[in-house]
């Protein structure tokens, strides 16, 4: 009995220290998730009580042209921005891994865009850069090239946001650089003795050795890209224009929730996004057995 009391006291102290995290988990994660799942099956405008509608919100999505447009825009954005960002990050990491002087300075400079890239200030700056009278067009004018209003054209607006995403390559670059530091130099020395070129060394040694890091960065950047919101909201003025060319999935979700007050529909959209990201992550993990190599 005495032993039980001591064990209970120890557990009580542990749970007391864990209580802030447990309260946050319940109050900020689990309860809101369960609530949003319930609301996704209702018609709810935040001013009246939810009305149960079953699968109506989910079936309505297939008839919503703006919803389908948001899927298309987001898919293009993810498929372009993620590979380009990772390639750019890996390329810069390879350059920094060559033992440059002032490595810490360059690493910090390249990392800074990742800290501020998703901010409102940078999105506003981006809108000014690619506007009709922006710095980009002024630079092109020096070479006799007439630019366009990149932000206001449906043919180019999305690609300016892709460029912004690629510019935020600092976080994956730092992780790639840490991984490159762990590749044994003996492997490169043996490859050079065998007459392997730099390109062959990259594909036969570097890439396989850092493949777990490639997997990590790939998944993290895909999740981040699907959740992109601020740049599209600021650049398009919250409308997703022109002609829905920057109507990201999260932006349309925001519009349905806080502009049209269709919270049930927005909750359903959020769960569809969660399921889509989970499926894509599972597929990547499933295929990773063929291209990710772990050191034993």
Describe the structure.
There is one protein chain. The longest helix has 38 residues, at 2-39. The model has no long low-confidence stretch (mean pLDDT 88). With 296 residues, this protein is mostly helical. Strand 1 and strand 2 form a beta hairpin. Helices cover 71% and strands 1% of the residues. It starts with a helix and ends in a 9-residue tail after the last helix. Helix 3 (65-96) packs across helix 13 and helix 13 (249-259) runs antiparallel to helix 14. 24% of the residues are buried. It is built from 14 helices and 2 strands. The protein has a two-stranded antiparallel sheet with strand order 1-2.
Give a nutshell description of this structure:
This protein is mainly alpha-helical. Helices cover 71% and strands 1% of the residues.
Characterize the biggest β-sheet: 2 strands, antiparallel
- Rounded mean pLDDT is 88
The count of DSSP E runs of length 2 or more, i.e. the number of strands, is: 2
The radius of gyration is 24 Å
Find the structural class using helix and strand composition: mainly alpha
Distance between the termini: 48 Å
Beta-strand portion reads under 5%
SSE ordering? HEEHHHHHHHHHHHHH
Uncertain residue ranges: none
Name the shape in a single word. globular
What is the fold's blueprint, element by element?
Elements: H1 2-39, E1 42-43, E2 51-52, H2 56-61, H3 65-96, H4 103-116, H5 120-129, H6 135-141, H7 157-167, H8 170-181, H9 185-193, H10 198-209, H11 211-226, H12 230-235, H13 249-259, H14 263-287
Antiparallel strand pairs: 1-2
Helix pairs in contact: 3-7, 3-8, 3-11, 3-13, 4-8, 8-11, 11-14, 13-14
């Amino acid at each position: 009995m005495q032993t039980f009391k001591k064990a209970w006291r120890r557990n009580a102290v542990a749970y007391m220290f864990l209580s802030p995290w447990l309260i946050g988990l319940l109050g900020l994660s689990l309860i809101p998730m369960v609530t949003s799942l319930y609301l996704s099956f209702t018609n709810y405008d935040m001013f009246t009580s939810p009305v149960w509608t079953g699968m109506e919100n989910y079936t309505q999505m297939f008839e919503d042209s703006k919803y389908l447009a948001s899927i298309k825009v987001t898919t293009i954005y993810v498929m372009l921005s993620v590979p380009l960002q990772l390639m750019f990050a890996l390329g810069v990491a390879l350059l920094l891994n060559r033992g440059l002087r002032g490595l810490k300075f360059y690493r910090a400079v390249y990392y800074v865009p990742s800290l501020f890239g998703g901010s409102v200030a940078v999105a506003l700056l981006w809108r000014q850069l690619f506007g009709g009278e922006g710095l980009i067009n002024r630079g092109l004018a020096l070479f006799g090239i007439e630019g366009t209003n990149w932000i206001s054209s449906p043919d180019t607006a999305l690609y300016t946001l892709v460029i912004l995403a690629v510019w935020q390559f600092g976080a994956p670059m730092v992780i790639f650089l840490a991984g490159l530091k762990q590749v044994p130099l003996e492997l490169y020395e043996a490859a050079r003795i065998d007459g392997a070129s730099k390109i062959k060394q990259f594909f036969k040694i570097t890439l396989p050795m850092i493949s777990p890091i490639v997997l990590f960065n790939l998944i993290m950047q895909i999740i981040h890209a699907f959740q992109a919101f601020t740049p599209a909201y600021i650049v398009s003025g919250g409308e997703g224009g022109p002609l829905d060319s920057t109507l990201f999935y999260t932006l349309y979700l925001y519009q349905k929730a806080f502009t049209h007050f269709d919270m049930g529909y927005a909750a359903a959209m959020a769960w569809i996004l969660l399921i889509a990201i989970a499926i894509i992550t599972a597929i990547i993990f499933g295929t990773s057995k063929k291209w990710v190599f772990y050191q034993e």
